[in-house]
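Box 3.1 — From sequence to structure: Class I SAM-dependent methyltransferase
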Amino acid sequence: MLTLIDLINTDRLPAPYEQGAELWNDLHISKMMLEAHLSPQTDAASYKPEKIQAICEYFIQATGLKTGSSIADLGCGPGLYSFQLVQKGYQLTGIDRSETSIRYARNLNRGKNADFIISSYLSPFGDNQFDSALLISQDYGVLSPDSRRILLKNIHQALKPKGFFAFDVSTMSAFEHRKERAVSKWYASDSGFWRPHQHFVLEKTIIYPDISALCDLAVVIDSEIKSYYIYQSFFSHKSIQKELEENGFHVEAILSNLWGEKYCEDSLVIGILCSKA
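Predicted structure (token representation):
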């Protein structure tokens, strides 16, 4: 039986990047995340279809990749970017932890020149194998600094000499935006994102000002209590460039997004194109 102490303990401050309850392969949550990826109305998971197309087109133009080149789509989700790039004649390898998303990606790209792997990109995934790699929707920022170093090491190892890596991160302007709008809320639901049955949710945003990061905390209560931690780190163009250079990459372009718009200081996103040094 749940007690008052159980509830009070959910309100503790997690250490930065502390692991919460399993998110990616919870059967219900992964289904709801897939629906969010596929929704053309929101950028909450994957970007909207017109942005996906623009990102793929800019990536090809900026890198000059030849038809048949190999691309690693990291955190590929349901394979929406892979689908666009396969249609243009590229070889795709998608990597994602969600079995639900990988299953969809395999069906979407059935018969195409694409392979999809259920794995974490924090495990090595190649050795001088890929011409380029993508990591989209600010996934880089959900990782701790140690995990980011592991990821960059894996990407560096997997890329061929002079191979390209494109990704995006949230900016310090986005950090200020989120801090100003941070709220706590609680609600009951008959069914929703977190559960298919009746449940109660406590949500709040925890700010870590000393490390320019936050945690979106969701405590879900039904017959038990589970706490989910979703982190985001925030960067200046100088801090992300320094992090890349320290891990063996040369920055080719700093942008306001991954579809090629010129960088401006008040942008909420930085799009980065870099190469293996």
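Summary of the box: The mean pLDDT is 95.
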